[in-house]
Amino acid sequence: MAVFPQELNDLRAFDIANAMLDGFDRHYTLFRETSAQAKKRFEAADWHGQQRAQRERIEFYDMRVEECAERLQTEFMASTLSMNVWQQVKLHYIGLLTNHHQPELAETFFNSVTTKILHRSYFHNDFIFLRPAVSTEYIENEEPTFQPTYRAYYPTKETMRDTWLRVVNNFQLARDFEDLGRDVDHVLTAVARELGDFRPRANFQVQVLSSLFFRNKGAYIVGKIINGFNETPFALAILHSPASGLLVIDTMLFGEDELQMLFSFARAYFLVDMEIPSAYVQFLRSLMPRKPRSEIYNALGLQKQGKNLFYRDFLAHLRHSSDKFRIAPGIKGMVMLVFDLPSFPFVFKVIKDFFPPPKETTRELIMSKYLLVKTHDRVGRMADTLEYSNVAFPRARFEEELVAELKHFCPSLLEEDGDDLVIRHVYIERRMIPLNIYLQEAEPSRMAHAVIEYGNAIKDLVAANIFPGDMLWKNFGVTRNGKVVFYDYDEIEYLTDCNFRKVPTPRNEEEEMSGEIWYHVGKHDVFPETFGPFLLGNPAVRDVFMKHHGDLLDVAFWQGHKDRILAGHVHDVFPYDPAKRFKNQRRLRDGVPPDGQERRRSELQPENPSALDNSLA
Asked: Which residues have a catalytic role annotated?
């Protein structure tokens, strides 16, 4: 039962609440400025600047929390205040949020600052926001100059083309399109193919979110087509044409599954200018109802809010389940102890206190690798992680075997506190089927597809300047829709930091017959031709791999990509099947197949994607 102060009688409480909200408002102002500038960077084709902004924006939140905590400590000696004062601070803070446009984010900021200042024993008290106190429903900006969350268009069959032209032109991109009329004709064809020979109902409309979604080299228009009781989500991808340097609509995506791939947990966060983020989340959930709100907040770059919502969902799941945490199935890692709750689709990863040979690393180095992944472009191939400190789990929900493993491998991170087992530092990732297990159980066609996807995953990582380090099958997972994703980060390096070499020719028979490495190997030396013996023991796997990805065993492949990246090239990695690109559809219509990497990708789609979706966890 909540215990509130009898009266608001401490004058410091209101000043602290105001200072706290000032800290949040400063954070969100800077967050929005960075997101709004993404449009100019896109127009100028400043890809390195866009990636730098995506990376640096992630650090904004913690910097503002530190600033605010320091201010509260300096001005109010905040860590010495009584519980009664903090209760008053919270009540004043709630009052200040009544007409605020980002109340849910401000509540999370309040939690972050107070838990930074106070001891963990306070965290379960009523002064933090264990549940939201201010509703985010129907928040509107009443200022006349403010644009609404989304625009609604009401086309007829006769005005359909003009409507789609307006949809694109209303974003007022400063760079010209190569041929907008041609691209809109492609959009009309795609819409007609998706909707079929439909009859417009009285409510027929197109709703489009008012801000563009920017990520890497792309901008996306996101919305839905409403006709009667049917709603069709869509996204238009806008890119720069390599040939002309002008803009093109590259493709149009439809439906929840294709938008889920665009907003995947394995991709970098979008840059989106939002006055009312909760309204964007509500709209996006109408497009992707199976996607948790926490993941949508993450995709919008509001990862602290996503983290907060995820933890609330986790606590709710604990209350409504009774199964026990266990050691996760699969091959145990040398660096991480991994456990899960069978009924919950995530895994928990704890860094061990010690590592057996040949691992030579430290906790700090491993944490730096995970931070690298968080701030880097994940290109759909590296799972996002949620990082938590001082997580209290119910001790009774742990299998004894798991507790013994934690006490043996991670004693420095473990604390028993009454009925709770407190883990001082843990990463949480979405659970996937480990690729080594999937390959053992899959029928031949699915096995072949997974091997091809594995090679595609490595090549996408290479394009993003990431060398995965340990490329064993067990370090990759298979998602619900059959995509292969990397999730073991303790040995990753920037590709440009690696030295790719051929194995030297033996100088004599003794060296040729030696079972040991007889040549010098530097810290960052990589020998691609040696990957085969570790990966390709299964003849069926080897045949598929060599047919589609034999170049991964060639030093020239790796060195060529390294050279291009060092020269400043930013590769294209599409969050959709390249066969869907309008330019490739034109080529196929004209009898010309897609070329190069795009041909490789388009040929490797599963024959029955929907069947594959249904077969995977």
From this structure: 384
